[in-house]
Specification:
This protein is mostly helical. The protein has two domains: 185 residues, Ribonuclease iii, N-terminal Endonuclease Domain, Chain A (Orthogonal Bundle); 67 residues, Double Stranded RNA Binding Domain. It contains 13 helices and three strands, in the order ααααααααααααβββα. It has a three-stranded antiparallel beta sheet with strand order 1-2-3, with helices on one face. β1 and β2 form a beta hairpin. α8 packs across α10. The radius of gyration is 20 Å and the shape is globular.
Protein backbone atom coordinates (compact mmCIF):
# COMPACT_ATOMS: atom_id res chain seq x y z
CA UNK A 1 0.00 0.00 0.00
CA UNK A 2 2.84 2.41 0.87
CA UNK A 3 4.42 1.77 -2.52
CA UNK A 4 1.19 2.80 -4.26
CA UNK A 5 1.00 5.99 -2.20
CA UNK A 6 4.60 6.84 -3.05
CA UNK A 7 3.94 6.37 -6.76
CA UNK A 8 0.94 8.69 -6.66
CA UNK A 9 2.81 11.36 -4.71
CA UNK A 10 5.82 11.00 -7.01
CA UNK A 11 3.59 11.25 -10.08
CA UNK A 12 1.95 14.45 -8.95
CA UNK A 13 5.29 15.88 -7.89
CA UNK A 14 7.35 15.04 -10.98
CA UNK A 15 4.63 16.06 -13.39
CA UNK A 16 4.31 19.37 -11.50
CA UNK A 17 0.53 19.35 -11.52
CA UNK A 18 -0.15 23.08 -10.83
CA UNK A 19 -3.44 22.70 -8.98
CA UNK A 20 -2.43 25.02 -6.15
CA UNK A 21 -1.68 27.82 -8.60
CA UNK A 22 -4.58 27.27 -10.97
CA UNK A 23 -7.26 26.14 -8.55
CA UNK A 24 -6.88 27.82 -5.14
CA UNK A 25 -10.64 27.59 -4.53
CA UNK A 26 -10.52 23.86 -5.36
CA UNK A 27 -7.82 23.36 -2.75
CA UNK A 28 -9.91 25.11 -0.11
CA UNK A 29 -13.10 23.30 -1.09
CA UNK A 30 -11.58 19.91 -0.25
CA UNK A 31 -12.05 20.56 3.46
CA UNK A 32 -15.79 21.00 2.82
CA UNK A 33 -15.92 17.70 0.92
CA UNK A 34 -14.14 15.92 3.76
CA UNK A 35 -16.71 17.22 6.23
CA UNK A 36 -19.51 15.98 3.99
CA UNK A 37 -18.00 12.50 3.76
CA UNK A 38 -17.13 12.33 7.44
CA UNK A 39 -13.54 11.36 6.68
CA UNK A 40 -10.45 13.56 7.09
CA UNK A 41 -7.44 12.61 5.01
CA UNK A 42 -3.98 12.34 6.51
CA UNK A 43 -2.49 12.56 3.02
CA UNK A 44 -4.44 15.06 0.93
CA UNK A 45 -2.56 13.97 -2.19
CA UNK A 46 -4.71 10.84 -2.30
CA UNK A 47 -7.93 12.84 -2.28
CA UNK A 48 -6.60 15.11 -5.02
CA UNK A 49 -5.66 12.10 -7.14
CA UNK A 50 -9.15 10.63 -6.74
CA UNK A 51 -10.72 13.89 -7.90
CA UNK A 52 -8.38 14.56 -10.85
CA UNK A 53 -10.10 13.00 -13.83
CA UNK A 54 -8.02 11.44 -16.60
CA UNK A 55 -9.34 14.02 -19.09
CA UNK A 56 -7.72 16.84 -17.09
CA UNK A 57 -4.31 15.17 -16.95
CA UNK A 58 -4.30 14.25 -20.62
CA UNK A 59 -5.34 17.75 -21.62
CA UNK A 60 -2.82 19.35 -19.28
CA UNK A 61 0.11 17.36 -20.63
CA UNK A 62 -1.25 17.09 -24.20
CA UNK A 63 -0.80 13.33 -24.01
CA UNK A 64 -3.66 10.85 -24.41
CA UNK A 65 -1.42 8.05 -23.18
CA UNK A 66 -0.41 9.69 -19.91
CA UNK A 67 -0.98 7.23 -17.01
CA UNK A 68 -3.91 8.17 -14.82
CA UNK A 69 -3.93 7.53 -11.06
CA UNK A 70 -7.70 8.15 -11.29
CA UNK A 71 -8.28 5.05 -13.41
CA UNK A 72 -6.17 2.83 -11.15
CA UNK A 73 -7.97 4.11 -8.06
CA UNK A 74 -11.34 3.58 -9.71
CA UNK A 75 -10.35 -0.04 -10.38
CA UNK A 76 -9.37 -0.76 -6.77
CA UNK A 77 -12.27 1.23 -5.33
CA UNK A 78 -14.73 -0.88 -7.30
CA UNK A 79 -13.33 -4.06 -5.71
CA UNK A 80 -13.35 -2.59 -2.20
CA UNK A 81 -16.95 -1.43 -2.65
CA UNK A 82 -17.99 -4.87 -3.87
CA UNK A 83 -16.36 -6.56 -0.89
CA UNK A 84 -17.93 -4.29 1.73
CA UNK A 85 -21.37 -4.47 0.12
CA UNK A 86 -21.18 -8.27 -0.15
CA UNK A 87 -20.22 -8.54 3.51
CA UNK A 88 -23.05 -6.23 4.56
CA UNK A 89 -25.68 -8.18 2.61
CA UNK A 90 -24.29 -11.53 3.80
CA UNK A 91 -24.65 -10.37 7.41
CA UNK A 92 -27.93 -8.47 7.07
CA UNK A 93 -29.80 -11.25 5.24
CA UNK A 94 -28.65 -14.61 6.70
CA UNK A 95 -31.54 -16.55 5.13
CA UNK A 96 -31.40 -15.03 1.65
CA UNK A 97 -30.24 -17.10 -1.31
CA UNK A 98 -27.15 -16.23 -3.36
CA UNK A 99 -29.15 -15.22 -6.44
CA UNK A 100 -31.16 -12.59 -4.59
CA UNK A 101 -28.09 -11.29 -2.78
CA UNK A 102 -26.32 -10.88 -6.13
CA UNK A 103 -29.26 -8.91 -7.56
CA UNK A 104 -29.32 -6.69 -4.47
CA UNK A 105 -25.57 -6.10 -4.70
CA UNK A 106 -25.70 -5.29 -8.42
CA UNK A 107 -28.12 -2.44 -7.72
CA UNK A 108 -25.96 -0.98 -4.94
CA UNK A 109 -22.74 -1.02 -6.99
CA UNK A 110 -24.49 0.18 -10.14
CA UNK A 111 -23.65 3.41 -11.94
CA UNK A 112 -27.12 4.78 -11.16
CA UNK A 113 -26.91 4.13 -7.41
CA UNK A 114 -23.40 5.57 -7.11
CA UNK A 115 -24.48 8.62 -9.12
CA UNK A 116 -27.31 9.24 -6.65
CA UNK A 117 -24.80 9.10 -3.80
CA UNK A 118 -22.35 11.32 -5.68
CA UNK A 119 -25.04 13.93 -6.33
CA UNK A 120 -25.91 13.96 -2.64
CA UNK A 121 -22.31 15.07 -2.05
CA UNK A 122 -22.32 17.56 -4.96
CA UNK A 123 -19.28 15.58 -5.99
CA UNK A 124 -19.33 16.94 -9.52
CA UNK A 125 -18.16 20.37 -8.46
CA UNK A 126 -15.04 18.94 -6.82
CA UNK A 127 -13.78 17.01 -9.87
CA UNK A 128 -10.99 18.44 -12.02
CA UNK A 129 -11.99 17.96 -15.66
CA UNK A 130 -10.64 19.08 -19.00
CA UNK A 131 -12.27 22.16 -20.53
CA UNK A 132 -13.96 19.92 -23.12
CA UNK A 133 -15.48 17.68 -20.45
CA UNK A 134 -16.68 20.70 -18.51
CA UNK A 135 -18.35 22.16 -21.59
CA UNK A 136 -20.11 18.88 -22.30
CA UNK A 137 -21.47 18.71 -18.75
CA UNK A 138 -18.95 16.15 -17.52
CA UNK A 139 -19.51 17.09 -13.88
CA UNK A 140 -23.05 15.71 -14.22
CA UNK A 141 -22.29 12.58 -16.27
CA UNK A 142 -23.24 9.38 -14.40
CA UNK A 143 -20.18 7.55 -15.73
CA UNK A 144 -17.79 10.19 -14.35
CA UNK A 145 -19.63 10.62 -11.05
CA UNK A 146 -19.83 6.88 -10.35
CA UNK A 147 -16.17 6.38 -11.32
CA UNK A 148 -15.16 9.21 -8.98
CA UNK A 149 -17.10 7.62 -6.12
CA UNK A 150 -15.08 4.43 -6.63
CA UNK A 151 -11.82 6.41 -6.79
CA UNK A 152 -12.82 8.20 -3.58
CA UNK A 153 -13.40 4.87 -1.82
CA UNK A 154 -9.93 3.80 -2.95
CA UNK A 155 -8.42 7.04 -1.62
CA UNK A 156 -9.96 6.42 1.80
CA UNK A 157 -8.61 2.87 1.75
CA UNK A 158 -5.08 3.95 0.80
CA UNK A 159 -5.14 6.67 3.44
CA UNK A 160 -6.73 4.80 6.35
CA UNK A 161 -6.87 1.10 5.49
CA UNK A 162 -9.75 -1.31 5.02
CA UNK A 163 -11.38 -0.36 8.33
CA UNK A 164 -11.65 3.28 7.30
CA UNK A 165 -12.90 2.34 3.82
CA UNK A 166 -15.50 -0.03 5.30
CA UNK A 167 -16.77 2.68 7.66
CA UNK A 168 -17.01 5.15 4.80
CA UNK A 169 -18.96 2.72 2.62
CA UNK A 170 -21.28 1.70 5.47
CA UNK A 171 -21.86 5.19 6.83
CA UNK A 172 -22.25 6.96 3.53
CA UNK A 173 -22.64 4.73 0.48
CA UNK A 174 -24.86 2.15 2.18
CA UNK A 175 -26.90 4.67 4.13
CA UNK A 176 -30.57 4.18 3.24
CA UNK A 177 -29.77 1.56 0.60
CA UNK A 178 -32.82 -0.60 1.34
CA UNK A 179 -35.14 2.20 0.26
CA UNK A 180 -32.95 3.45 -2.58
CA UNK A 181 -32.64 0.13 -4.42
CA UNK A 182 -36.40 0.07 -4.93
CA UNK A 183 -36.38 3.33 -6.89
CA UNK A 184 -37.50 2.85 -10.48
CA UNK A 185 -34.19 3.96 -12.03
CA UNK A 186 -32.40 1.17 -10.17
CA UNK A 187 -34.63 -1.57 -11.55
CA UNK A 188 -32.68 -3.76 -14.01
CA UNK A 189 -35.22 -4.08 -16.80
CA UNK A 190 -32.83 -6.06 -19.00
CA UNK A 191 -32.60 -8.80 -16.37
CA UNK A 192 -36.35 -8.77 -15.79
CA UNK A 193 -37.04 -9.11 -19.51
CA UNK A 194 -34.41 -11.84 -19.90
CA UNK A 195 -35.82 -13.92 -17.03
CA UNK A 196 -39.39 -13.46 -18.25
CA UNK A 197 -38.53 -14.75 -21.72
CA UNK A 198 -36.42 -17.64 -20.43
CA UNK A 199 -39.21 -18.82 -18.13
CA UNK A 200 -41.52 -19.06 -21.15
CA UNK A 201 -38.97 -20.65 -23.51
CA UNK A 202 -39.08 -17.59 -25.73
CA UNK A 203 -36.11 -16.32 -27.78
CA UNK A 204 -33.56 -14.15 -25.99
CA UNK A 205 -33.90 -10.39 -26.59
CA UNK A 206 -31.69 -8.85 -29.25
CA UNK A 207 -30.60 -5.22 -28.86
CA UNK A 208 -29.70 -3.17 -31.93
CA UNK A 209 -28.34 0.37 -32.01
CA UNK A 210 -30.43 2.28 -34.54
CA UNK A 211 -28.73 5.66 -34.31
CA UNK A 212 -26.00 7.68 -32.62
CA UNK A 213 -26.88 11.35 -32.49
CA UNK A 214 -24.99 14.46 -31.40
CA UNK A 215 -21.28 15.39 -31.18
CA UNK A 216 -18.66 12.84 -30.14
CA UNK A 217 -18.42 14.12 -26.56
CA UNK A 218 -22.21 14.30 -26.06
CA UNK A 219 -23.84 11.46 -27.95
CA UNK A 220 -27.38 10.12 -27.60
CA UNK A 221 -28.06 6.51 -28.55
CA UNK A 222 -31.29 5.07 -29.94
CA UNK A 223 -31.67 1.34 -29.31
CA UNK A 224 -34.35 -1.16 -30.36
CA UNK A 225 -35.00 -4.48 -28.63
CA UNK A 226 -36.26 -7.39 -30.73
CA UNK A 227 -37.74 -10.70 -29.56
CA UNK A 228 -38.06 -13.38 -32.20
CA UNK A 229 -37.69 -10.78 -34.92
CA UNK A 230 -40.48 -8.65 -33.50
CA UNK A 231 -39.95 -5.09 -32.31
CA UNK A 232 -40.76 -4.93 -28.58
CA UNK A 233 -39.56 -1.44 -27.71
CA UNK A 234 -37.14 1.43 -28.24
CA UNK A 235 -35.09 3.50 -25.85
CA UNK A 236 -32.79 6.53 -25.80
CA UNK A 237 -29.88 7.26 -23.51
CA UNK A 238 -26.59 9.11 -23.22
CA UNK A 239 -24.87 5.70 -23.09
CA UNK A 240 -25.69 2.45 -24.89
CA UNK A 241 -26.22 0.84 -21.50
CA UNK A 242 -28.86 3.41 -20.54
CA UNK A 243 -30.54 3.12 -23.94
CA UNK A 244 -30.69 -0.68 -23.56
CA UNK A 245 -32.40 -0.29 -20.19
CA UNK A 246 -34.97 2.12 -21.63
CA UNK A 247 -35.70 -0.25 -24.51
CA UNK A 248 -36.06 -3.17 -22.09
CA UNK A 249 -38.38 -1.06 -19.90
CA UNK A 250 -40.58 -0.35 -22.92
CA UNK A 251 -40.66 -4.07 -23.72
CA UNK A 252 -41.62 -4.93 -20.14
CA UNK A 253 -44.47 -2.44 -20.29
CA UNK A 254 -45.63 -3.88 -23.59
CA UNK A 255 -45.59 -7.40 -22.15
CA UNK A 256 -47.35 -6.29 -18.99
CA UNK A 257 -44.52 -7.38 -16.71
Amino acid sequence: MKAIIRKIIEYFGTRSLPVQVEFPKWEKSLSTLQKKTGYSFHDLTLLKAALTHKSYLRKKFNDHKVPSPFERMEFLGDSILGFVVSKELFTRYPDEQEGNLSKFKSKIVSETYLTIKANALDLGKYILLSSEELQSGGQNKPSILSDTMEALICAVYLDGGISAASRFVKNYVLKGYEDLVNRIELVNYKSILQEYLQARNMPAPDYETLAEEGPQHQKTFLVEVMVGGKNMGKGRGTTKKAAHQEAARAACQKLGI
